[in-house]
Each structure stands twice: as structure tokens, then as C-alpha cells.
Specification:
heterodimer; A: alpha/beta; 14 helices; B: mainly beta; five-stranded antiparallel beta sheet; three-stranded antiparallel beta sheet; 2 helices; 8 strands; 32% strand; globular
């Protein structure tokens, strides 16, 4: 492709409607989060909007979008974008413009903050500035750093919400065990999967505790991996060699409570997976009954059962009843209506953990009719990729 | 009176800032301080610079009662060595790490270990009260079953 092939359907279709600036001084005598909050408030008010209007944020790493979201009390986001150290403001504007144009959100907030730190003499002599320079690492230490960081930006709150799930709905871990067995059964039929030896419920229940109630077989198998996709227009796709797999709809979902500090998530039925799925079903003409293959994020088993309930396969707390209803005892896996399957390749639990990357090539293989563990007549794939708090995403893929 | 520099020195690996320094000064004095919005009364946690509800900057660190209920729990059987895990220098494994919902406000939760009870006996929403773990480099908040000394 060359410059002559570029298109510009976004021309004049999006606009900047609010601006806010703070600082541009040598020493603002306030934290960079305080500066960010003030600039965002000024921009929102300049546009004549309120926090309820903002539904997308792109932020540079010294102003992480989760902290802005929870810190300004914005109710829900349906789009967000992190950026890395090398990103410049022009990238962020294009990301936001594409998000609005594509329908991912309607009012995107772009937030960008600089804080003078590092090797300068004045920075070293100022304890606040010096500490920022030594402890701030791309958002990971932000907001954390007290001994209350038990649940901050790590895996522990997943087990903790898993604990509450079991208690609140009066459940044993059997649903999680059935999912682990399902995934291993499917992996055993997929030559490229990492773990292919079948497991039993005894194996599952006897596995050692890591973050109780999560044990070893509740957790994905860490692997080295790399995944790549090519995406183009539908028109070009039809001229290429494989059956096109169309992106029918995508969504993100983030709830204000718990996006930045996870233990503050409102409650089980308001985790971000629910926000994300409401957004996806709203955008889609397809429904759950049309779905042939499904990939609910399984970094941990408890995340997968949450996705399955958020998607609508079962009511809150109902995953166990749903699994048992559709359990194929001769094949040791879930087959909804005798055909439709979850994690056809084994998922992160058994194919390998890659924060959901493996789901997309497998879904494409299924919809092309070329999968090792093929669901007959697979035309629609539903993917729920992400966790409970700040990174829920979902997609519907379909083929003709 | 604890100076700013002493707070910086006692937590060398923590991102201390204008927005949270008072919380840590309070920990040294074994006081659990959470910001409260003076404009609308909302308890602000984590230590944001503005009230997320009304956007006021008029926030004051205020001592909480220390009473709450166990909202979330996970039992740590395997942890990264201290300071990756903050409590493994003073608590034997496995130890229960909770998020306690404080009585001051729905959804106001503080993450800390539960002490003084076998992890298997901790129930959902069990009432607890604030205590402090001794013997570490800084006072560490924890919660114990309510009504016990």
C-alpha cells in the first residue's frame, strides 16, 4: 500500500470542544494528579459538559486514565487508551478522534501531564520531586506504595472477589473445576496447546493454594508467546484468499469504582465485565443465541465465570448450574446444546496465558472452518477479554 | 511532631506526594486517616487531590473509627519476598489479606491483613476493628474480630 491508497472518512466528522491548561511553571507545588484533575475539570467545564458526559479517556502515563476516571468520579467509560513513554500528544489526539469516529465513545477526554523530576539539581533538593523521580514507574507505583497495596494493580483482588462470589451465592469451587477440565479437554484436542494432559476434578480440588480460593489449576499457564493479526477494510478482505472474519462489534467497559484501586469495585454485579457487555449487546444485532464459540477471559477461572454470567449465559451465581446442564460427560467438556463450546483451544488456562491474545487466532480458525477442535458450522464468536476493574473489553466476530 | 523528612525516610520506596503525606504521618502515630471532603462530606479514598463526587479541593485528613466488615478476602499462601509483599516480614504464611469496608461510608474499603483468627473461620461481612502490627519497620494497620482485645 502507498500514500495514494489512504482514505479519510473521518474528515470534519469529529471536533475539539473543550480545552484546559494548568501550570507551565517551574514549580507548581502540587502533585501531578492534582494538576491533571484541574486541567480535566477546566476542559470539561469549558465544553459546558459534566462528568456524566465523558465516556472515553486517553492519558499519558504520568496521568493514568484509571486514576482520572475514579478520581473525577466519572460514572462509566466505554473507551480508554494508555500510552507509553515515547508517545507524543499528537498520537493521543488521533487515538481519541478515531475512537469517537468509530463509535467507541462520544466524549473523549485527552489528558497529558508533565512533572519536572529526574537529574536536575532543584529536583534532587525537593523531597517531593526527588521521590517522584525514584518511585514513579509508568503508573505502577501510582496510588500504591502503602502497605494497603495488597490489592493494587495486581492479581489478588481477583481471588478476593472470587471469595465473595462463593460466599455470596453459596457455591463450592466446582464451577471453576468444570471450566478447568473443559479447557484441558479442548487443549488435549489442539496440537499447539501448551498443556494437553487431561485433568480430573480430584486433580483440580487437590491442586495447591496460591491465593486462596484460587489454586494452581485456577490460574493460566505462563508461556512465551507472540501473536499478530492483520485487519483491513471489508472490501479488501473479500479480495484476499481466506474467508473474511468480520469485526461485528467491540466494546470496552470500565466502572468508576475500583478502576484505579481494585478493592473499591462497587460489588460483584457491577464489575466492569457487566459494563462492557451492556455496551457490546447494545451495539450488536447478534445475540447470545447466535454465538457458536465463546472465549471468556480465563487468566483465572473466577474471571471466566464472571464473564460467562456478564454475557448472559447464566444469571449472577448461576455458572455452575449452567455448566452442569450442558456438560458432556463422555467428552469431559461443556457443549451448549450439544455443539457450542467455550475455549475451543484450551484458553489461557491450558493453551497458554497471553492476556487473551490466543483467543483471536483460534476464533478466526473456527470461523474459517480450519480449527483443530472445530465446532461444526461456527459463524459467530464472542470474546470477553480482560479483568474486573479497568480493562474489560469484548468483541463479536462473524463470518458469512 | 513528625516532620515531612521523617515520613519520607520511614517509607523510602513509597510514592509520597502532597496528596498523601498526611496519611503516612498518621500511620507513624498509629492513626488511620482518610480524606474527607469539607464541601459535601464524602470520604475520599484513595488519596485523590479532589473530591470525586463534587470536585472540591477542600479535603481534610480525618481519623476513622476503625470499625468495619470483611468485604473481600484472599489467603496468601505464596508471596513475593518483602518488600514485594508488605507483610511477610512480620506475618507467617499463609495469612489472610482483606478489604475491610469501613462503617463511615458504603464502598469505603481499606486493604489490610486480618489477625487473631484462623483464616478458615473468617466469614463474609464479619465485623472487625482496627489494630496495629508491631515489630515491622513502620506501624502496619490490621483488623481483628470485633469485640476482642
Amino acid at each position: 500500500m502507498a500514500v495514494k491508497d489512504l482514505r479519510n472518512p473521518i474528515k470534519d466528522q469529529v471536533a475539539i470542544v473543550g480545552i484546559g491548561e494548568v501550570g507551565y511553571v517551574r514549580d507548581a507545588k502540587m502533585s501531578e494528579m492534582a494538576m491533571t484533575a484541574e486541567a480535566c475539570i477546566r476542559a470539561i467545564q469549558d465544553a459546558g459538559l459534566t462528568k456524566k458526559d465523558i465516556d472515553g479517556i486517553v492519558a499519558q502515563k504520568s496521568a493514568e486514565f484509571e486514576e482520572i476516571h475514579e478520581g473525577l468520579g466519572i460514572p462509566e467509560l466505554y473507551w480508554s487508551q494508555d500510552t507509553t513513554v515515547g508517545t507524543v500528544f499528537g498520537h493521543a489526539v488521533t487515538y481519541a478522534a478515531n475512537a469517537v469516529f468509530g463509535g467507541s465513545c462520544n466524549y473523549a477526554l485527552v489528558a497529558w501531564t508533565t512533572y519536572r523530576a529526574g537529574a536536575s539539581q532543584s529536583a534532587r533538593n525537593d523531597p517531593f520531586r526527588a521521590r517522584y523521580g525514584t518511585t514513579f514507574v509508568g503508573g505502577q507505583t501510582r496510588g500504591s506504595g502503602d502497605d494497603a497495596r495488597l490489592y493494587h494493580h495486581n492479581a489478588n483482588p481477583y481471588g478476593a472477589f472470587g471469595w465473595r462470589y462463593l460466599k455470596q451465592y453459596g457455591l463450592s469451587r466446582e464451577a471453576w473445576g468444570l471450566l478447568a477440565i473443559n479447557n484441558r479437554s479442548n487443549a488435549s484436542r489442539t496440537p499447539t496447546a501448551c498443556l494437553r494432559t487431561p485433568i480430573t476434578m480430584d486433580d483440580y480440588m487437590n491442586a495447591r493454594w496460591i491465593r486462596e480460593p484460587l489454586a494452581l489449576l485456577d490460574m493460566e499457564i505462563p508461556v512465551d508467546s507472540s501473536t499478530a493479526l492483520i485487519i483491513t477494510t471489508a472490501e479488501r478482505a473479500k479480495a484476499l484468499k481466506h474467508r473474511p472474519v468480520y469485526i461485528h462489534a467491540t466494546s470496552f467497559g470500565e466502572n468508576r469504582f475500583g478502576t484505579h484501586q481494585y478493592e473499591l469495585a462497587e460489588d460483584y454485579e457491577h464489575l466492569s465485565t457487566w459494563v462492557c457487555m451492556r455496551a457490546l449487546w447494545h451495539k450488536s444485532e447478534l445475540q447470545l443465541k447466535d454465538v457458536d464459540v465463546c472465549y471468556p477471559y480465563d487468566g483465572f477461572t473466577c474471571i471466566a465465570t464472571t464473564w460467562i454470567e456478564s454475557m448472559g449465559w447464566a444469571p449472577p451465581g448461576g455458572a455452575l448450574v449452567f455448566f452442569k446442564k450442558h456438560w458432556d460427560a463422555s467428552e469431559n467438556r461443556i457443549k451448549v446444546d450439544g455443539r457450542r463450546m467455550f475455549h475451543t483451544h484450551g484458553g489461557s488456562l491450558s493453551y497458554g496465558g497471553s492476556t487473551g491474545a490466543s483467543y483471536f487466532p483460534e476464533a478466526v480458525r473456527q470461523l474459517r472452518g480450519q480449527a483443530a477442535n472445530q465446532v461444526p458450522n461456527a459463524k459467530v464468536a464472542l470474546l470477553g477479554v480482560g479483568g474486573f476493574f479497568h480493562n474489560s473489553t469484548a468483541a463479536l466476530l462473524r463470518a458469512d | 511532631m513528625v516532620t515531612d523528612q521523617e515520613v519520607f525516610d520511614r517509607w523510602p520506596n513509597v510514592y509520597l506526594s502532597f496528596d498523601n503525606l498526611e496519611h503516612y504521618r498518621g500511620l507513624l502515630e498509629k492513626r488511620l486517616l482518610i480524606k474527607k471532603c469539607q464541601s459535601c462530606g464524602y470520604w475520599v479514598y484513595p488519596h485523590f487531590p479532589r473530591c470525586p463526587d463534587c470536585w472540591s479541593a477542600d479535603l481534610t485528613f480525618t481519623e476513622v473509627s476503625g470499625k468495619g466488615r470483611v468485604y473481600l478476602l484472599t489467603v496468601f499462601h505464596q508471596v513475593r519476598p518483602y518488600p514485594g509483599d508488605p507483610h511477610s516480614s512480620v506475618l507467617p504464611l499463609p495469612y489472610p489479606g482483606a478489604a475491610v469496608e469501613l462503617v463511615e461510608q458504603k464502598g469505603l474499603r481499606y486493604a489490610a491483613p486480618i489477625v487473631g483468627i484462623d483464616p478458615s473461620r473468617i466469614t463474609m461481612d464479619m465485623p472487625v476493628e482496627l489494630t496495629w502490627i508491631e515489630g515491622a519497620d513502620v506501624p502496619k494497620p490490621a483488623f481483628r474480630p470485633a469485640g476482642r482485645s
